[in-house]
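A.,

Following up on our hallway conversation. Structure tokens first:
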């Protein structure tokens, strides 16, 4: 079953040439990530909220 993701947001760290990713949220809290080059037709990677937090914790720079 395909979830309906809303409020897609482009990453602030994306390239200005359109090669970027965006994230959206489903009503059940699942986070979807897709490639913007395909204009809404990209496959969507789905993450639970815990998986999303773990991913962001690994890819964000340490600011301590």
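Then the amino acids I'd put at each of the 64 positions:
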């Amino acid at each position: 079953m395909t979830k309906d993701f809303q409020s897609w947001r482009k990453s602030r760290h994306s390239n200005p040439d359109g090669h970027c990713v965006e994230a959206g949220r489903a009503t059940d809290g699942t986070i979807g990530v897709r490639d913007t080059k395909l204009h809404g037709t990209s496959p969507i990677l789905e993450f639970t909220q815990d998986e999303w937090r773990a991913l962001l914790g690994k890819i964000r720079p340490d600011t301590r």
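Helices lie at 49-59. Curious whether your intuition agrees with the design.

B.
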